[in-house]
Amino acid sequence: MEDFFCKKFNDSLSLSYVLFNRVEQNVFNSSKRFNLSISELSMLEVINKSPIHGKMIGDIAGELMITPSSVTIAVNRLERKGYVFRKKSETDGRQVFVNLTEKGRHADRIYKRFRKNMARDILKGMSDCEKLMLIECVDRMNDFLLSRINKSILNRDGLKNTA
Questions:
Q1: Spatial distance between the Cα atoms of 43 and 148, rounded to a whole number of angstroms
Q2: In whole angstroms, what is the distance from residue 71 CA to residue 62 CA?
Q3: What percent of the chain has pLDDT over 70?
Q4: Overall average pLDDT of the 69-94 stretch
Q5: 142 phi, psi to nearest 5 deg
Q6: How many CB atoms neighbour CB 21 within 10 A?
Q7: What is the pTM of this model?
Q8: 102-123 and 2-30 are packed helices; what angle lies between their axes, rounded to 10 degrees?
């Protein structure tokens, strides 16, 4: 019986991953105002967490769990598209912060609104108990995934893994 649930969950999870990506990309591909990928929108969201000072490349990379060189390439592309700009630190000229332009803030607001509406629609019709159970299940899944990422980082860096 455990194999049935495991296969069913695996199939559902795989389909959900594909569908989430497709729905998000379709919404933004159909918009004539934005020429952004979902990964670029995610980057705008991270940058907008520090709207006054901006974010440094390394901080963005850490939050998105990608390499700083990948962030630099994406920031270059976003800068050419007019969504971000770079600004040197006033206290340390070696530090460069990435900030959103008004166009970038607008795209981030629309993306957040879209995701909030999607979450609201998914939860519609569920009891509070069902909503809580869904959130707990997703949190448990995220904890598992983060533990796997942390374990692979420890192994990659040549550190002993005691977990």
A1: 23
A2: 10
A3: 93
A4: 92
A5: -65, -40
A6: 11
A7: 0.80
A8: 140
Instruction: Please report, as a single letter, which amino acid is at residue 55.
Output: K
Contacts with 33 (C-beta within 8 Å, 6 or more apart), sequence order: none
Number of C-beta neighbours around residue 104 at 10 A: 25
* Amino acid, single-letter form, for residue 23: V
The number of angstroms, rounded, from the C-alpha of 73 to the middle of its chain's C-alpha atoms is 17
DSSP the chain: -HHHHHHHHHHHHHHHHHHHHHHHHHHHHH-SS----HHHHHHHHHHTTSTTT-EEHHHHHHHHTS-HHHHHHHHHHHHHHTSEEEEE-SS-TT-EEEEE-HHHHHHHHHHHHHHHHHHHHHHTT--HHHHHHHHHHHHHHHHHHHHHHHHHHHHHTT-----
Contact 98, 55 (CB under 8 A): yes
71 in Cβ contact with 62 (< 8 Å): no
| Residue 50 pLDDT exceeds 50 | yes
Query: With contact defined as beta carbons under 8 Å apart, do 148 and 141 qualify?
Result: no
